[in-house]
């Protein structure tokens, strides 16, 4: 199956995604923020798919998407977000979509929605 990088600052969400993806046979690798994810890619790690949160400390998902697309423009990206007190969910997701994310999901999302997004992303 696919080697998937999960860039997510919330441990529960990160662990949940790893559990679901691993159960489906994917190899799930995690980063706690955009900077960590970008550094992994910059160090030569490759992925078939990247799932990134939008609102994170150190480097947010929008900055991470821009950096990742520079280093590996062919790798599909799925953006996820639950919004924040200062930013509604759709604002960051709309920006991610305009920047090239192949799918976007509002948290909380159903596993079926994630699986559909992964199917779209891995065919992109």
Automatic annotation (TrEMBL):
It comes from the Bacteria. PANTHER family: TWO-COMPONENT RESPONSE REGULATOR (PTHR43228), TWO-COMPONENT RESPONSE REGULATOR ARR22 (PTHR43228:SF1). Keywords: Phosphoprotein. CDD domains: REC_hyHK_CKI1_RcsC-like. Residues 3-122 form the Response regulatory domain. The modification 4-aspartylphosphate is found at residue 53. This is Response regulator. SUPFAM superfamilies: CheY-like. The keyword Phosphoprotein applies. The lineage of its organism: Bacteria, Pseudomonadati, Pseudomonadota, Alphaproteobacteria, Rhodospirillales. It comes from Magnetospirillum sulfuroxidans. PROSITE patterns: RESPONSE_REGULATORY (PS50110).
